Structures are given as C-alpha cells and as structure tokens.
C-alpha cells in the first residue's frame, strides 16, 4: 500500500475554497483503479494549513494517478488558492527505506483541547531530544475530535528502540498520557516521489524543500519575539538556530526593562518571568571608594519595575510560549546562503544531521546576533565603521560577601587625574549574595592575543578568569573586606559597537545585534532587539496576508534605526562615566527603560488637531499609549484597564465623547468605526469611550465603555470629541480633536493601502 500526504497552506480566508476544491476532485480519485482512501486533515495548530491524504493499493496505481488527468485537475484547482506549491511525502507500509513515518490516531474531546494543547507543547520539547526523532505535526479530522500525531523518524530501528522502552516513552509522552489510552498506530516507510525527482529525507545527502511565510534566523530573544508575534497572528514561520543547545549560564543580558515587561504581559509570559526573576530596585555609584549617588528605581506610576533575569531564562520562557503556538526552533541548523527575487527568498541551510535543506520563504529576518551571517550575506556595513574598545573585559558569576543593599546594581569606578582607570559593575542575580560581575580583564589576557586585537564578543581561545582574578578586582575597587566565592562561570569578552547602514534589503531584514551592537551599559542590547521585533512583526504579518500598504515595511527602518543610533551612542557615552546626566536621573532611567520611546518623527504617525490647546498634555502621535484604570463596561462587574481593550494583534480605535456630543455626532462616530473596520480588513477593533455624564446611545456597535473615574480624560487630555488610533505595538498612530474622519481614512491608507 502507498500513502501520500500533501501539505499546503491556503491564502488567508481561502481555506473553505480549498476544502471545496478537494471535495470536487476526491470523488473522481475514488473511482480510479487502486484508490483505497481519500481524506482531508486540518493542522490543529495552524488554521491556514491542510493535508490531503490518498492511499493506493500499490505503487503502479499511484503512479498512474500521478500521470493522469485527475491529478492535473486537482493541481489546477488548488493553484489560485495556495501561495506555494506545497510539500508532499510518499510512503509505503512495508519497509524499503530508512525514514519511518508514524501515524498515531487519538481522540481529543473539544472540552479538553486546552489541556491537551498545553501538554502537547511540553511533549514536543521533550521528544525533540530523543535520538532519531526528526519532526512531527498535529492534524485534525474536520468536524470531529479525532486527531493524528504524524511523526517522522530517521530510522525504524531508532523509533522501535524508543517505543520499546516503556520508561522512556512514558517520560517523554507523560503530559498527554491520558489521551493515549485508546490509540491506533500505523507505520510507513519513505519511498521516492517521481513528481519531484528526489529522494525523501533519509540522511546526509538529502536536499529537503520547505516553504514558509517567514524564515527567522536566530533563536535568541529577538528571533523568538519575531516568531511569537507572527505565530500569534496565524503567520507560518520557521526559526532556525545554529547552536545545538540553548545556553545554560548567565553570559548575556540580565536586565529586563519596564517596557519589555509590558510586551511580555501582551504575550502572556510576564507572570512566569516575575516568578523566576528578581527586582532590581536601584543603583549606587562609587568613585574612588566614595559614594557619589544612590537612586531608587521603584518609581511611582511605572507598570513594572526593572527585572533581573538571565538571558537563558528569557529564551526559555519565549521558547515555551512559541511552542504553545505550534512552532519550535530548529536547533543545529545553520544558514549557509540565500537569494531573493520579487516573490520571496530561497535559503540554503545545513541541518543537525549534516544534511542540507532549502527553504522558500516570503520574507527572511536575520536575528542571528553579533556575528550575523545574514548581515554578512547582505553586505551590510556599519556606519562609520565598527568601533571596538581597546580593553578586554571579564565576566564572572560569583557569590559576594559584603554589606550592600539587596537588589541594587553597583558600579565602582577608579579615577586618576580625572581619567577612569578601573571599573567594576555588579548586578544581582537570583540567589543569596549572588552577582554577575564585569570588570577589566587582567593584563595577561591581552598578552595572550600577541598584542593583536581580540575579536568582539566572548572569547573561546582565551583561558577563563579565575576566582583569584575576581577577588583582585574586588580588592582594588569594592569596599574593604569584600570576599568572593563559588565561581560558577567566567569568560573574557571584547566590546564592539556600531549600527548597520540599513535594516532592510528587499525581502530580508535584520534586527537585534545583527543590526546594532553596543556596550552592556544599561542592558540595552536585548531589550532593544525585542523592541525591533515588536515593531517589525505586526507589519510583516500584514504584508504576508497581502493587506499592507506598499510602504509599510519601509517604516521598520524609518522608526527603529534612529532609536538604534540613539541607544548605541548613549551606551558608548555611559560605558566609562559615573553617570550621564545627574541633573535628571529619573528621566534618564525612564529613557533607558524605553518608557519614553516615541516614533513621533515617523511618516507612519499623524494627527489632526484644530485647537492648539486640544490634547495638550496628553500623549502625542507616535508615543507609547499609556494605560488607564477605572473604565466600566456594561455587564462587567469590575473596573477595566484600557490595556484590556487594546491588548491583542490588531489596531484599536478609541473614540471619546463627553456630554457635549449630540446624538447625531455619536451615530456618525459609529458609522466611522464600521467604515474603518472594513478599510482595515477587520484588523481593527473600535470602542466608544464616554464620560460619566454623557448619554449612551442605543448602538449595537461599537462597544461602549465609560470613563467612570475620569482617568482616560486626564491621561489623554481629551474633551468634547476626540479619537486615538492605537497600533498593535502599543504606540499612538493617529489622533484628532475633534473627530476627523477623513484624516483617519488617509492615515489608514498608509497602513492598509487601498484594501477595502
């Protein structure tokens, strides 16, 4: 018996048309000689993906179908409905080949779907480490609770070795064990597909062809954020990472900024981050042993404080969140080359087993760090050249015995004749008296380079600093009597800084350290990369779906590159000073936390304000949209935050009106909301925000919320009628006072083009 499985992705909104096209042809397939079964399955985690299944009595029957008119009719019907040709696997139920396919049929009641989905994400993470396991997909039979776990293994022997050990199988599959009590399992072996003239994935020589909407290169915080945001919007993406395993020690970013915490609230991981991190509550600076200042970071009005969290924990949380969306990074997979044309990007990858893979993507995003292969292949250069600090630095993870306040970042500087010649930074880590220390490396490390410049980043060639090296730095710069112990990890690194000349080249983008490098002062690198991803992903999603205006993707560089330039410059200036601006430390801290980030200079934001005093004191177009408490919605027994309305993947239109607005104005506002929802292809939610003394109109839409405590009126400085359009990234895209319907339509045209 021969089975074929043809996986394809429909254009968004055309899934039902694919089903209809399949039904029209499936009946003709059933009449062919040797046809045994025809079925259509849905990807349980991807609403746009479907799998067409056929089974044949023998290879001759299948090949006759392939060469006949019915297969051509199916291809002709599916062509306009699917953006790419699809991926087909061919298998048989008796072994000639090494690759084995396992089809596990099980029942997942709809009432228990969320329980299964959470457990399944954990199983995917566990089984990925089993020798011989390659990949799998979760499929669902339409209109039923029957699901299929369709897995691919490198060889039948490796699969049987795993399944034959009950302890291992129970350990990996434990989270979904209650659903595996009554299953049907079938095994198939790969055979050649004459339609593609290639062998299936059977080893080192395989050349696998895949298609996806967005290929993300790099599984650090930036790449994972891009992937999470795309997956939340139903966009198919693949994440590849050349490192075979995630890092296990705190060798990179520690500080998570307030604005990043807000983004994590949107993504659903902020509670988990707080559970495993610690709060960084302030900082202290000492120069030549004398305290020069101390500042509390626990400022009133901040939605979150500054969190201390090692980057490996950040990557773990984002990876787990991504798994719940059905995407797992392909580790041990490295980008070798790519080409691009008017329709997409073709990338060549090497895989963990030594094979090669060709991926066709609509867009590619390079999030592959300081030594970015994407940046290299694009030929991007650093504006003004790549700057490198002449000094070598060392990092260490140690316990420190001293009398210092908990939760404070500590900086000890030594100056001679006004010039800094010694620096020690100590950042608290989770655990009693545990710190990450950064300081100048002892001279012997520079001597090991032979007097030549050490490469930027962490050095694998130079020896690891010792506990004695750490203690020597503490003896020179920290308070007398300070002792270090329990060195868990250490390394030598070289600081480089710069920003690339452009963030986009055609269908390829760079983000994070691939686009900008800066000193670790202020913990800017990781947080800035996450902000890059947050800005880019929602725009890419609209472009993939074909509803973005032509210039929307250009706004990524327009908005993010100036911010990158400012952050690189500020981090370089701060690297060897005791403080950048003592006159306004609070504003400086808020700036470092990205709470003052604004895209006010972007052509993608705008406003229409007839009275110069209108909206004065409120957030401007391009600013972060502040949260507001105390909103009331009919039928809800507790007050709401504004963020509960704006949270999600779409734009949010907020139309405000007080008692001065008459009924005609309110009805016109309702019609405007309906109109712009159509203009945005449904990618816009709208709410009517009323002052407590305003009369609520009898409208079915938009939904009405009441500014019961006046927080919205005060926070957004509104009166009479006004509107604010909040972008998916939480920034104000457009505002007007009074309502300017035509101005709003023109602004949305910049985002959605001529879509209706």
Automatic annotation (TrEMBL):
ATP-binding found in the keyword field: no
Gene Ontology molecular function: FAD binding; oxidoreductase activity, acting on paired donors, with incorporation or reduction of molecular oxygen, NAD(P)H as one donor, and incorporation of one atom of oxygen
InterPro entries attached to this UniProt entry: ABM_dom, Dimeric_a/b-barrel, FAD-bd, FAD/NAD-bd_sf, RIFMO-like
PROSITE patterns: ABM (PS51725)
Domain ABM stretches: 2-91, 100-188
Record-linked SUPFAM superfamilies: Dimeric alpha+beta barrel, FAD/NAD(P)-binding domain
Needed cofactors: FAD
Keywords: FAD, Flavoprotein
Annotated spans, Disordered: 614-636
Record-linked PANTHER family: BINDING MONOOXYGENASE, PUTATIVE (JCVI)-RELATED (PTHR43004:SF19), TRK SYSTEM POTASSIUM UPTAKE PROTEIN (PTHR43004)
Name listed for the protein in its UniProt record: 2-polyprenyl-6-methoxyphenol hydroxylase
Species assigned in the record: Micromonospora auratinigra
